[in-house]
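Step 1: inspect the first sequence and its C-alpha cells.
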Amino acid sequence: MAKIKHHNFLNTVHEVFTDAKQAGVLHLYAGGKSFSGRTIEIGGRELYHFGTTGYLGLEQDSRLKEAAMNAIEKYGTQFPLSKSYISNPLYKELEDYIKEMYGQPIVITKNSTLGHLGVIPSAVDDNDVIILDHQVHWSVQNAAKMLKTRSVPIEMIRHNNLEMLEDKIKKYQHSKRHIWYMADGIYSMYGDYAPVTELMALSEKYPQLHFYFDDVHGMSWVGKNGTGYVLDQLGELPENVLLFGTLSKTFGASGAVLACSNPKLYDKIKTFGGPLTFSAQLEPASVAAAMASAQIHLSPEIYDLQHELRERIDYFNACLSATELPLIDQNESPVFYIGTGMPKTGYNFVNRLMQEGFYVNLGIFPAVPVKNTGVRITISRHNEKKEIKGLVEAMEHHFPLALEDTQTNAERVFHAFKMEPKTLRDPKVSSELTVEVIDTIDHVEKEAWNQSLGGQGVYDWEGLKFLEEVFQGNPRKEHNWSFRYVVIKDTDGIPILMTFVTLSIWKDDMLAQAQISAAIEEERKTDPYHLSSMVLSLGCLFTEGDHLYWNASHSLGKEARDKLLETLEKLEQRFGAKMTVLRDFGEHTVWNEALYGGGFLRVQMPNACYVVLNGVDSMEDYLQRLSSRNRRHFRKDVQPYLDRAKTIVLPKLSKSELEQVKSLFGEVQSRNLGLNTFSFPDSLFEKMNENHLWEFIVLCSLDKPEKIVGVMFCYTNLNQVFVPAFVGMDYDGLEEFAIYRQLLFRTIERAIGLGIPKIDFGLTAAFEKRKLGATVEKKYAYLQTNDNFILELLGIMEGQH
C-alpha cells in the first residue's frame, strides 16, 4: 500500500455534517415570532424542546429580560472599548456578584472559547506539561494546542482513565514543574462526570499535579449558589485548580467565568490574558442579565429551581428504566444519550421523533465516534412530565422501527457502545441471501474468483495463495495475517458480491505525518508495539486496486452491500479489531452514502496510476504516443541515464542477489515514514524467488556489475496485468543513475515485451508516473474506528515534533 495523503480533518467533518444536513437533522433554523423554551418551531411545526442547554430555563425569566432591556436603554447595544482600558458601568457590580457566588477571585470572559484561549497560555509555563482527557471540549483542546509553539508537551489519555493518567504523571514528575490535567466537569454528549474526588486524591500523591476544569455543563443546576458540579465535589476551590463556569447556557445570560484561588496566578491571568485583553467586552444587556441571574443564584430560590429540575431528571430516568432503550450513561445530570450506532439510524430516529412532535439533538462525529452516533436529550424546567413521558413512549415505539428502516439491530447498537445487549424487537431478516465467510483461498472456486476479481493487483487466486503462504506461520505477530473471503450469493447460488479482507496489526500512526511517526518510532525502540492496533481491512497492505466485486444491478445488490457491512462488523467483533478500513474507492463511488450512513469516514489516498498498452507494439511506439511535454521529459530526465546502468530481468535471484534486493527494499521502507508500516517477513522475498509469477527487473552498476542499485519486484496477473508491486533503491546512487525513473521506464518496456495489456502502477509517486504516460485517478479509503482517541491523539501531536 502506497503512502497515504494526510487527510484534512476539517474536510472530513464537513462531509459528515453535509451528510447529516441532507438528512434534515443538522443546521436547522427555528421559526416562529417568539420562543418560550418549552416548544420550538421547526419546518412550521411546534415541537416539544428536548435539546436546550438552558437546563433551569433562566433565559426566559422575566427578571433577566427586563434587566437586559433596561441596560440597552441606558447604555446602548454595546460598550465598544477593550476591558483593559475601561469596563462598562455594570461590570464591577457583576464581578462582585460572581465573586460572592464562588467565594474566590474571578475573571469574566466574553465566552468560554475565548476564555480558554486567554487563560491556558497564561496559566501554563514553558516548563509545564498538559495532559488532556480525550473527551475534553474542543475549545480546551484548541487552546492547549497554542502552546506547541512554546514547546510545551501535550499528552492525551483515554476518557477518565486514571491509570493512564498516572502513567503520564510518572513520565513527567521529575522533569516538569507543573503537570496540568484538563477535563470537563460534565461531558456534554453523554452527561457523565469527571472523577473529581479520585483526581484530588491523585494530586495528594503527586503535588505538581494541577487541574483545569471546564464545567460549563455542570453550572447552575447543581452546587452551592449554582456554582456547578466540580465545586460541589470539591467543597472549596484549592490553589491547584482552575475552574471555568458559564454565564450563558443554564445561567441564562452570556459570557463565561474563571475562578482561581491562587493569588499570583490570578493576577497573572487577569493582567494579561490574550483575548481577555484585546477582545470586545460583554454587551450591557448581557452584563445586566447576568447580574439578575447572579442575584437568583445567591438567593434560596436557586435551590428550588435545582429541585424542580431534579424532579424532572429523576422522572425521565424512571421512565427510561422501564424500557430497553440503550441509555449510554445513567447519572443525575440533565444530559442523556440514547445510542443508535450508525449515523443513518440516528438520522432516521431523529426524524421519526420530530414527526411525533419532539425535538432532540443528534450526537455525531467529531463530538462522538462516527459509529457511536446517537440522540442527545436534555431535560430542562421547561419540560412537563406528560411531555417527558410522551417522549419516552415515542422513543420506545420508534427505536426498533429506526433499526428496521436502516437494516441494523439492537445487538449491533449495544456492541458499538460496549454495553450488554438488551432484548429489543429486531428488524426483519431477509432469507434470500447466502453469506459465506471462507478462511482460505483453497476453499474458494478458482475460476469464479478470477472471473470476478482477477486481472488486477496481486490478488487473483494464485496471488492470494502466495500471500497466504507468506503471511502465516511467522515468528513475529506483525508478519501473520488472517485472510477471510466473503462471498454473498442469491437463491440461485450466483455471487452478487465477492471480496477478501485481512486482519493484521497496523501502526496507529501509519497515516500520520512523517515527523509524528519519527517521534513515535523512538518509543518503539523499547516498546515495538507502542500505538499499534489490530485492523480489519478490505484487501491487505500488500495489495492495491478494486478489491470488491459487486453486481449493483442485481435486485438484491443493495441488500448484499448492507450484508457485507454487517458481516465485517461481526468479523471485527470476533477478532477484536480496533478499526475497519475499506480501501481504494473512486471519488464518486455509489457506496459513499451507505458508508457514511454506516459509520465510516472518508479519507483521500494518493492517486492510483495505471498504463494501458492495448495496441502498443514497441517502446518506440509507446514513446511516440506520449504528449510532447512527456516526450521532452523522457529525452531530458530518463534517456541520458539509460546507458549508465545495465538492466536485467531475472526470473530468479542468486543468494547474494536476494540479500542485496532485500536490503534495497529495506532502504525504501525505512525512509517512508509517511506510510509507517511494520516490515514484511524475510520469507516474502524467498517465496517471491521461488514463485514463477514473480520476476525482478534489476539495475546494475556498469563499473561493478555484481552491485545492484535498483530493483522492481513484479507480478504477472493472469497475463492481463503487470504489477510492479515494490521497489528497492540504493539511495547513494539515486541521482547518478536516476534509479526510480529508469525502473519505471524498464517496467513499461518489460510489459510491452511480454504483451501484457495493462500495468497496475499502484498509488505512489503519481507525478513521476504521469510524466511517463500513466493515467491518474483519485482514490479514497473509508475508516471506521471504535473511538476517536487515536485520531485526536495524532491531531494533538501535529506540530510538536
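Step 2: inspect the second sequence and its C-alpha cells, then contrast the two.
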Amino acid sequence: MPQKPLVTDAPIPGPGAPTAEALQAEILERLIYSVGKDPVVARPHDWLEATILAVRDRVMDRWMESSRETWRTSKKRVYYLSLEFLIGRLMRDAISNIGLMEPVRQALKNLKVDLGDLINLEPDAALGNGGLGRLAACFLESMSTLKIPAYGYGIRYVHGLFRQEMSEGWQVELPEDWLAHGNPWEFERRESAYEIGFGGHVEPVTDPDGTVRQEWRPNDHLLAVAYDTPIVGWRGARVNTLRLWSAQPIDPILLDKFNSGDHIGALEESARAGAITRVLYPADSTAAGQELRLRQEFFFSSASLQDIVRRHLQHYGDLGSLPDKVAIQLNDTHPAISIAEMMRILVDLNGLKWAEAWRLTRGTFGYTNHTLLPEALESWPVSLMERLLPRHMQIIYQINADVLAEARQRARFSDAQIASVSLIDEHGGRRVRMGQLAFVGSHSINGVSALHTELMKQTVFADLHKLYPERINNKTNGITPRRWLMQCNPELTRLIGDRIGPGFLDDINLLKGLDAHADDPTFQDQFAAVKFANKERLARLIKTRLNVTVSPDALFDVQIKRIHEYKRQLLNIIQAVAMYDEIRAHPERDFVPRVKVFAGKAAPGYWNAKLIIKLINDVAKVINNDPAVRGLLKVVFLPNYNVSLAEMIVPAADLSEQISTAGMEASGTGNMKFMANGAVTIGTMDGANVEMHKEVGADNIVIFGMSAEEVNEKRARGEVPRTAIDKSPRLKEALESVASGVFSPDDPNRYRDLIGGLYDHDWFMVARDFDAYEAAQERVNELWLDRKRWYGMAVRNTARVGFFSSDRTISQYAAEIWGVGEQQAS
C-alpha cells in the first residue's frame, strides 16, 4: 500500500507545488552540471548534494524577495548575536517548511534513491553545544515563520564542538568534521569581509576642528569573511539569513619567510587566523585558551557590528535612527564585548559625542541572560583585555565611571553596592564582568523562565536591578514545533491531524483540542501505538550502536542534556544503582521494567562531568550483564549527542528527567521537546518546569524535591549532608557500593572522591533530594501500571505544549523588546 501523505506536507500558498517529475529533472540537472557526476556512478553524497541544490533553488526566490521587501518597506531589522547555532540537518527542515516532502520523496524514488537515507547522510552542523545553540536555531526559524526581518550572526566553526566517542567508558574528544563534503547550503560573500584588529596601542588624534579623539592602532589584523545560509520559515512565509564568519589571514603566506626557507613560519598568519574559527569553546584552563576564546568573541562581535552599521548607513545615511531601525539581541554574555565595540564604532569611527553614542547603543541592544552560575557569567582579566583590546578597555572604564557615578549620586548606593554593580571585579585579581557590561549597555535584560527571571533580580543582578528597575523582564524559552513535533514525530503529527484536523500546523495552540480526547480509549491506543513504534526504532539504534538489547515494552526513562553536576545525572545513576540492589534483593517482587537512557557531552576540562559519564558506563556494564536483573533494568549511554540523535530519542521517551538542583537551571528546552512528544516529566520546580507544571496541571507531571528557597537555606546553614545519607538506607548502600569499587573493580578508588563530595558538602543536593526522588520514581511506577491514567497524562502533555512554542516566545520579544513584527508600517 502506498504511504499516506504526511499532514505536514500541505502545499505552500501561491502557485501549485512542482510535480515529482519536475523535481526529478531538476535533481538530475544539478547532479550532472553542478556536482559533475553521471547518475550511473553517483554516490550517496552526490545525490545528497544534488537534492540540496535543487531544493535550495526553490528557496532562493523567497530569500531574495524577503530581502527586497525589507528594503522596500524600511522595516526594522533584528540581529541575533550568538556564539552557538545548533541548527541540525537543514534539508528535511527546508523541504518540510516549503511543503515539498512528498514530491521530493517521489522524485528520488523514481531515481532509485531513498530520501530517508539522504536525510540521515546530511551532517549535523557542529555549531553549538546544547540548549543555548538549539534555542538560537529555534528562534531563527520562528522569526522567519513570523515574517520578522532578521539576521543570525555567529561563527563558521570548521570543527565546532567535538565528536564524542567512548574508550572503555571514558569520553574521548575528536574533531567533528561536518564540512568534509562541503556545505551546499551556504554562500560565501567575499564582498562582505571586514578587518578585525587585536593588540597594538591607542593614540589621541586631533581633528581639523580641534576635536581630540582616540584612535586604536592594532598590530594584529585578520579578515572576517561572511558565509550566508537561508533559514526557511513555515510554509515559506519568509527566508531569513544566518551569517557565519570565517577568519582568514590578510596575507595567506609570508613569501619572504617562505623564500628564506622558513616554510612553516611562512604560514604563521594563516594558522593564527584559522585557530579563531577552528573549534567551538576552546578549553580556557590555560592563558592561551582564555585569549583564544576572547579573540573568538571579539572577532564575531566586531564583524557583525561592522556589517550592521554598514547596512544601516547604506540604507538610511545617518546613525541617529539606529534604535528605530535596528534591534541587536545578545544571546548570553559571549557577544557582550559588542557594547564596547559599538561605542568605539560610533565615537571613534563616526565622530558621535559620547552621550549620544551611549543613548543609541543602549537603545539598540537587548541582553538575554541564560545562567545564574557565577562561572558561566564570563569575566576576563583586565591585563588580558588591556593587551588584546586596549581601546575597549578604555571605553569600559569610562562606561563604568558613568554607571558608578549614577549609582552613587542618584541611587545613593553604599560601597558594597558600588562594588556589586561595578564592571570591574576587584576580588582575587581585577577582572571585567561581561554580564554587567551587557546589562548596563542594554535597554532590556531578559531571563528565560519566570523563576529564573525572579532569581536574577534577587541574586546575580540584584543591585543593578535596584539601579535600573525597569530593565529586567521575562521571556520564557520555546521550541519550534516544526522540527520538534512535525518533523521528528511524523506519525504522531498524522494521528493528531486525523483527530483534530490540520489547523494546529499553523497555530500550535490548537493542540488544546486533544484535551477532549485524552481519556478516549481508542485514541489512547493509537497514541500508544505511535509511541511503541518510536521505541522500537530507538531500540534498534541502541542495538546497532551499543550492542545492547532493550525491550520497547519497558518504560523508557530518558535524560539527555549536557553533562553537568547541577543537572544531576549523578542522582539518576545512583537511583539506578539503588533499583539494581532492590531487584537483586527481592526477586519475588514485581518491578516495572525500565530502560534508562543517557546522552550528553562533558566539557573537555570538566573532570567530574567526565567521571559521571564513566560511572554511567561502568554501572551499565554491570547491570546489563547481570542475569539476576532478569532484563528488568537496562542502562545505556548513547555517545555523540546532537540534534539528529535527539530527534530519535525524544519521540521514544516515556519519562523525561528534568531533575536539576532547584534554582540552577535557567529554563531548559529539552523538557518542552519531550512534553510535545507525549512524555511525562519527572522534575524539580526549577526553570521552565515551574511553568510546565502550571500549563499541564499538577496531575500530569511528577514533581519532587526542594525548592530554590530551601536549597539556599540549607546552603546558608551549612548543614552536613551526612545526616541525610545516614537516614536513607537505600541511598547509603548505593553510595557505598559505588565508592567501594563494585562498579570499578579495575580501580576500586575511582569514585571515592566523587561520592565523598556528597558526604562532605553536596552542593547540588544529590543526597538530600534522593529520598524524594525515589518516592517520585515509585509514583511513576504506579502511574505506568495504570495504562489509562498514564496515556491520559501523555496526551495532555502534548495537548498543552502550545505555550512553549518559540513562536510565542519570539512574538513577545518582537512586541516587548524589539518593536518589530506585523505591526510595523508597510
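Step 3: confirm your contrast with the notes below.
The chain has 33 helices and 22 strands. The chain has two domains: 1-199+219-287, 482-810.
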